[in-house]
Structure formats: C-alpha cells, structure tokens
Design goal:
11 helices, binds cytidine-5'-monophosphate, 46% helix, TIM Barrel, globular, eight-stranded parallel β-barrel
Length: 234
Amino acid sequence: MKAEGRIIIALDVDSPDEGLGLVRRLRGRVGLFKVGSQLFTSAGPSVVARILRMGERVFLDLKFHDIPNTAAKAALAARAMGVSMITVHAAGGSAMLSAVMGALKSAPAEPERPLVLAVTLLTSLASSDLERIGVAGTPAEQVLRLADTALEAGVDGLVASPAEVVRLRRHFGSSPLLVTPGIRPAGTALNDQARAATPREALGAGSDFLVIGRPVTAAADPLRSLNRIIEAIR
Ligand code: C5P
C-alpha cells in the first residue's frame, strides 16, 4: 500500500461544511476520512453519504457499546451506509462482539462489509481511573485482556496507541489490523495526546493505519501539512 493510503484524517469538526471543505482539499491524498461522534451527531448520515459520493472511503468511528442485538443492528446500519471501517468497544464483551461480526458476515455480499476495529482502553484513562471503575491490573494488562477478547470474537483489528503497538504485535502477530491515533509529526503541538509518536515511528512499530486529526485539520494550510507527513513516511 502507498504511504498515503495508510493515513486516516479525523474530521473532528462541528459542521458538515467544515468537514466537506477538508475532504475537498485533501481528497485523493489519504486512505480514509474518519467521521466520529462530534461530526456525526451534528451532521448525521448525510455527511457520510456526501463524502462517499466524492469517491472517498469513510471510517465511521462511533465506538458501539450496547447489548448484542442493538450493537449488531447498528453495525448493519453502518454497513448499509457503505462505510469501510467501524469501531466497537471491546469492553462490550464476547457476546456483543460476536453478534456484530456474525451479523455483518451473514448480510448480503454487497456493499462489502466494513472492517471492524475494537477499542480496548481509551488512552485518556489512567491507572487511577481503572481502580475507580473496579478494573484490576495495569492499563497495559487490561489492553491485552480486551484485545484478546475482541480478536477471539473475530474482529479485524484494534485501535491502539503508538505505545501499545509493539506489545500487541509481539502478542498477536502480524494479522490483526492496528490503527493508531496519537500521531504527531516531529515539532508539532501535542494538544491533549499524552503519549504521541511521529508517523514514521508508529509505522515502524507495526501500525497499519495512522489516524491524524489536528496536526492536519487545524493547520493554517492542511494540504501542506499533509504533504509534509506523506514525504516523511515515504
Ligand atoms: O487531533 P488528533 O490527531 O489528536 O485526533 C485523534 C483522533 O483519534 C480523534 O478523532 C480521537 O477521537 C481519536 N482517538 C484517540 N485516542 C484513542 C482513540 C481514538 O485520539 N484512544
């Protein structure tokens, strides 16, 4: 895959106009555009349809976490929209994850089913948060436990911070897709990402796709910032 195909741009903006403006500027230069809860809640499915009509692929990052029937039906609704990737919370448990995979695999072949990525532990959670919600062990142990549950249920891959990628690859080998947010090109602002890596570092550690938001979307010239990242990973 070409370097740019591995880049996912996170469209964390408030309005469809802003999101579509970014897609217009960056189209053809990246693998996918990620629509998450911020843009989806304000703009709805029509923004996804408009990006797809522009010939771009969409990662619908709504992190489904519900009873098995509801999560599976939500996944089918995402599939009907024609998106290429979706997310579920591994903490939803085996029954929920298996229901999602079962529903997607038994649906008709067209449109092609989205890849399903499991979110293990939100990178915003620290050890003290785990203790408060009654989770024993370290964040690293919890990530492995949840990753194991999700992969056993048949998900295609995991969302993982750059710091987790090496350990996950060691544990689970080369087959799970690893999608990595927390990417910061050398010399750019960390914002609220505590443990960031450069695009090269994350790919070198074994990540398949890089999720990049503000370093591109909040730049004065998003296309120029993106081109710099592409040059750095080529
Ligand atoms: O702007 P920035 O590059 O920090 O955006 C990162 C994107 O990745 C955001 O859409 C955020 O929701 C997502 N994400 C993350 N950390 C996770 C999971 C998802 O930053 N653990």
